[in-house]
Design goal:
By secondary structure, the protein is mainly beta. It contains two helices and eleven strands, in the order H-E-E-E-E-E-E-H-E-E-E-E-E. It has an eight-stranded antiparallel beta barrel with strand order 1-4-5-7-8-9-10-11. Strand 9 and strand 10 (144-155) form a beta hairpin.
Length: 189
């Protein structure tokens, strides 16, 4: 009996889910990392795609998948971006895509926690992302849209992004912790 109830609940949830695609003009896939132990260097990726199944009634996510082109890394400094594309970091020629696939979502009102598999350099690790500021609207053309922010932290060493230099006064050139900050706007298909 409980299997029947669970199947019915899942079917109802999936029936309310609505497929969306990213609005790339209004989405930013960003990151921040401490440089020389004193400031944060911020950057983003400019070439990506994503699919989202979002339930407007419950404000929950049933699925989220994203593919990011590693070569599209952008910090505003060409020399640094080329270094990030090299084998010292993303090895973009060998590993052209960074991917994320949601495994679960736990809602808490207009916020929640998304757990999923992040793959960088062919290495997959489970990560947790805080989901904040979920908002929905009907746009000027009558399309349903959802917006939200994903935030989390990863240790870049877990993904074999190991390049670094020791500083004379102590510390290292680049922090191991990378903050992920993704501002998403998606439109219903």
């Amino acid at each position: 009996m409980s299997k029947i109830l669970l199947s019915s609940a899942l079917a109802m949830t999936l029936a309310n889910a609505t497929p969306h695609t990213l609005d790339n003009m209004h989405t930013d896939v960003g990151f921040s990392v401490k440089h020389l132990m004193i400031t944060n260097v911020k950057g983003n990726f400019t070439d990506y795609e994503g699919k989202i199944d979002f339930d407007y009634k419950t404000k929950t996510f049933n699925a989220l998948e994203a593919k990011i082109k590693a070569t599209s890394v952008n910090t505003g400094i060409e020399k640094r971006d080329n270094h990030l594309r090299s084998d010292d970091f993303f090895a973009a020629a060998k590993y052209p895509e960074i991917t994320f696939k949601m495994k679960s979502y736990k809602a808490d009102g207009d916020e929640g926690v998304m757990t999923g598999d992040l793959t960088i350099r062919g290495i997959t690790k489970e990560v947790e992302l805080d989901v904040e500021d979920i908002a929905t609207i009907k746009d000027l053309e009558g399309n349903n849209r959802v917006g939200f922010t994903l935030e989390g932290k990863i240790n870049r060493m877990d993904f074999d992004l190991k390049w670094n230099k020791a500083l004379e006064f102590g510390g290292v050139a680049v922090s191991e912790t990378v903050k992920l900050i993704v501002e998403v706007q998606a439109v219903e298909k």
